[in-house]
Design goal:
Layout lengths: L10 H21 L7 E4 L3 E8 L13 H23 L5 H24 L2 E9 L2 E2 L5 H19 L9
Antiparallel strand pairs: 1-2, 2-3, 3-4
Helix pairs in contact: 1-3, 2-3, 3-4
């Protein structure tokens, strides 16, 4: 009996997210100085603004004494390992599961690299409208968020039509 092909090849997408994330952060570090100064891209909606975050989403735990770095490193490693294991058990053609998992792994590892290298995550995408402002984020955060939303949406709204892989 031959084993069924699993979804581990989808990790190429994770690798692409990691590379794009790291290249964009390198660009931001070199092109968007000084820190905190907005560079308008779409006035009234989108700026490139270099920022650093020692915490998690929305700067959660950013004011910790440094322990949060290792907490988020361990969390990223554990979550990535679980998701890679999930990909290993997922049939290769089940893209509704593999695609979001690969995006999340790529984003988690992208931010993990920052935490290990600099003890903080480099952010630079700032979306706002009038008085409303979303916290500055990066491409790794996009991978995590888009992957999580897709995973939830596909799980909740996927019909079990003919030919669906489940």
């Amino acid at each position: 009996m031959t084993p069924k092909p699993n979804a581990l090849p989808w990790l190429w997408l994770s690798a692409a997210v990691i590379v794009l994330d790291q290249l964009s952060k390198w660009w931001a570090l070199h092109a968007l100085q000084p820190v905190g100064v907005p560079h308008p891209v779409i006035p009234g909606f989108l700026n490139w603004t270099l920022a650093f975050n020692t915490g998690a989403a929305f700067s959660f735990l950013a004011d910790g004494a440094g322990w949060q770095r290792w907490f988020f490193v361990l969390l990223a490693v554990a979550i990535s390992a679980v998701l890679v294991g999930w990909l290993q058990r997922t049939p290769r053609r089940d893209w509704r599961t593999a695609l979001p998992l690969a995006l999340i792994v790529g984003g988690a590892v992208g931010n993990l690299i920052d935490r290990l290298h600099a003890a903080q995550v480099t952010d630079f995408i700032h979306v706002y409208f009038r008085q409303w402002s979303y916290p500055v984020f990066n491409l790794a955060d996009c991978g995590i968020t888009v992957g999580a939303v897709m995973l939830i949406a596909f799980g909740l709204f996927a019909g079990k039509g003919q030919g669906d892989v489940r």
